[in-house]
Amino acid sequence: MKKNCLLLIRKNCFRGKLKPVPWITVFFLFTSISPILASAHSLEVSINKEEYRSANIDGDMVQTREIKGKVVDDKGEAIPGVSIVLKGKVNVGTSTDVNGEFTINVDSENDILIFSFIGMKTQEIPVGANNFLTVNLAPEVETLEEIVVVAYGTQKKGSLTGAITVLKSEELAKSPAMSLNQTLQGKVAGLQVVQSNGLVGEMPYIQIRGTGSLAASNSPLFVIDGMPTPAADFRSINPNDIESVSILKDASSASLYGSRASNGVILITTKRGKSGKTAFNVSITEGFSTLTNTKFRMMNSRELIDWEILVGKRQANDPNIAADLANDHSWIKDLTQTGRNRSYDISVSSGNETTKFYTSMAYLKQGGIVKSNDLNRFTIKSNVDHKINKYLNMGLSLTFGKTQRTPVNQALSGTNPLICMYMNRPYNPVRNPDGTWADTHWGWQNPLEHLENLTLKYNDYKGMGSAFLEITPIKDLSVKEMVGLDMTETEYSEFLQPDSRNVQLGNAPSRLINSSERKQSYTSITTATYNKAINNHEVKVIAGFEVQSYRNKSMLAQGRNLPSDQTTVLNAAATPFATTGGAGGWGLVSYLTNFHYNYKVKYLIDATIRRDGCSRFGKDVRYGNFWSIGAGWNLHMEEFIKNISIINQLKLRASWGTSGNFEIGDFASLTTIAYSKYMDKNTSYLYQIGNSELTWEKNNIKALGLDYAILNNRIKGKLDLYNRVTKDLLQWEPMNSSSGFYSILRNVGSIQNKGIEFTVDAEIIKSDGFGYSFGFSISHNNSKVLKLSDGKDVQTDGTTLLREGEKPYAFFLVKYAGVNPSNGEPLFYTKDGKVTNVYSSNDLVMTNKSNDPVYFGTVSNELTYKNISLSASLYYSLGNYVYNGILEVIQGDGQEQGNQAVEALTHSWHKPGDIVEIPKQDLNIPRAPGTTRELENASFIRLTDVTLSYSIPEKWFGKQHKKSVKVYAKGMNLWTYTKFSGIDPELYYGPWNFRIPPSRIINFGIDISF
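Given the sequence above, the corresponding structure tokens read:
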């Protein structure tokens, strides 16, 4: 019987000289080539072993031994095409045939074979004395066995019944960011992260699966290392400290948090130490931020002068025109800058079988694109775990952070630089000829002088610590006690210097305002977990008790008429002006239990019950009961699916349950009084009418889901459908004015969110040295108001309305009918659809359009070649509308005194017959507010992230040094496509709402691990 061996020929694989062999041998070798099973880098050649027993290389005769075997997957199915290489000898190798079988020659029992295949974990198998090997290759991601963080613990991914999306540190590290909100945007289907404006330090708007409340909070619950934490703490989180982020979206995954889970839960787990050698990581980032918007443009001096002549505000022969043209400048450029970004981060972790630790320090400086706006953050993080003995474990987590923010004035006034940069006339000089600050139109204070002489500053001090003790008294049972303290202190100072022009002119006194607010949250969580597996059955039961106490205290003091810009203390003020203070708090007590059962990790059941009591509600209705039930079916483990080789995972999920919301004022259910002063005497008055029946908002959530993975896990994703109904809405209900009060908070009405989410991640190409992956997500949510108090409409901000059967906060406006081509006057539709040139608020109608997008999601791509990686992500939002209220000012039709958008001149009516959308610019035609002329489709596609990285090969550092070095360049918010005419389509616009668009950020960084 002939036996064959395989010679794997690779380019540049020979290190020594190949001694010559007889020509007859060479001829025989090439005439004995078997069918080629070659990749781009290898060629397999079959040689008759009996006729060519061994190769004489460098004079050494090597004797070989034949090994046969078979490679199968986790289902026992043969895997053809698996690469098999003899470790340390890359020129010796083979691959499996169509039956998964292979034959290879080895030199000794000490040899090791390396088995690799796309989508599978590489395995190294010692040969030993075996002549036949059966090798089982597992998927690269063991979907069923992967451990994920869930409510009050961890769970195997394969046994989950809820809608949970997990972002691991490896995924977060692919796209380094300076803040967590930059990391999360677009990464999770159903999760919206929207920037409120481009000022650094501002909190984003975060929402999961639509608007679930009208008067209470729509923000998800944030939990850091098991401790509930305010959403504002986003600012104090160092992204490099994060191990994983779990987003819980439905009842089965989130209802264990009961009263606080109505808007979903975001679980953040920080890094902890691991056994082994001490590991260091150093990250350094440098970069800059710039203004992005180039489409939206205000007039220059020439255009504004032409517009003023057009509307009759100045004559064409005005002698000041030449001087005004000479003063032409851009207030937007004057008030913005290139912000500098830098961050430095160092961490160290280590451990052994008993003690593990992780410690980090980080500094971030982020410069805003508006002058004087910046952020500085310093954080220290330490996690320690210690195993006392086989029964006792304990751990400690400590975080300290200081964040210093310098915002800018955002008040609706002429000192707001965000207003001034758009409305100030371009020919108004910054300084007078003598070098003093020049006033702007209307006598407004110069915004640059205002930024220089008015100092605003926030100092946020964040301290969070938790400790746990875990006891395992008997096998399978653990009892854990965790206690934590979360404390935030915010100091605010505002100083208007005595040499400010407004002070010198007597328009305002110099002033110093100091305020502080302290927030403290104490939490105690006691849980007992019993986890028992018997044969194919697994049962897990959690029972717990939780107490949380929250307190806040604030004070403010103001002094006026200070002597100089060096005296920034209150006792230097000549005139004490105001002193205020306040305090508040709430308490929460909870009882919870969860039951999980699975059979062979094939059939899954989860059930949760939680009872919460909160001090914010009436004493007789403070407790609420919340529950959920979920089921899962891992179809791919069934015999009728196992035979379908392309399916690696197919899992059905279903859940139904309830959760609550108590995010209202601390004393909303109570009748309260307020104190004031009259003639140096204390006075009190009735401040709020209480409602002793005030209780929980309740969410009823039904959901279906499908998890899938095919083609050796090369393509995987999720499909989710949900129906979320919120009842007993917390709403301010109007009262008869004769009572002396305008409204009272009650539980009235309901709202519905229905939606679908789909994600797919695909490894399109994965070969030696080259790979390409693609990701896509789409989310659709449809919100509808089901019921309001007595069915009555609720007017909101003047442009939106709440009405039964409509989208929440749908725009309520007069329909704009365009411009009369004969005379340039604006036209409107009446309620009954007739066209008129008379604007009337009686013709307001529902538009069925809102700020909420119809669809939103992400398209991502990643290319890798050896150690080089290039990734790009596009975020899209479709079908969302914005009331572009600033058009009432910058397209004022001749009514406004400040600068105008260039369209007011170039796209307005000029002569009979013009078909345009902007009316005649005329002082005698009043501007009609609140029409659909300002309502615009704000759909957009944005290139949110482009990252190019290079990992330096480990071999460069030598075998004795275990290092990894990655250098990268990252760009954020690089390009936006939209037909929206305003400043930025992502921002929420209300009447006169001037904001800075999110900035374009370019960063360069290096990560070093050793």
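Residues 301-311 form the longest helix (11 residues). Try to locate this feature in the token string yourself.
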